[in-house]
Amino acid sequence: MGEIKDKRLELLIEEVNIFLNNDQLFEHCLAVAKTAEALTEELTDSNERRSQAFIAGILHDIGGIYPNDQRVEKAEIFNIELLTEEREFPLIIHQKLSKYLASQHFKITDEQVLSAIECHTTLRKNFTELDLIVFLADKISWDGGDNAPFRQGLLTALSVNLQSAALYYINFIIADGLKVAHPWLLEAKKDLENQLS
User: Which EC number(s) does UniProt give (predicted)?
Assistant: First the structure.
């Protein structure tokens, strides 16, 4: 059974690479998938959970195939509801586009996987463990390389727990002068503070 799952994931990796046709974006997606899987491994010995984390990770940024200046239009074509903040800062829309493409193009039906893809940049209130894992994996495997200014603090907070690491990151980017404060991010911050208090 494990071998069949491995084959399925190998095939998905190949399909994502072809779909993206962008080495840098693909390498980031693969790194996030591996990090998400490793984080899950520390929490459970369930192959199913690890597989979900890997799939959400490999697909989390596929919406990045559309340049920022096309994202509002693509979201409207795909009937994706947009918030004012997303229209102001279209970069954020890629998470919703990624969910759409994962569902429509890659035929992903697992709602937990789709949820984790959809909020991997911002997190959201009432987040699941998988949402949190993919959110953190994306920051740990930052596409700007290992020199992320928040990296060391995030990894230190991660040694406490996932929630502490997520709250550290959110507080860091807010203090650093976030371009647009996405409502989902602010709601996630409140949830994290409540869970950690």
Answer: 3.6.1.41
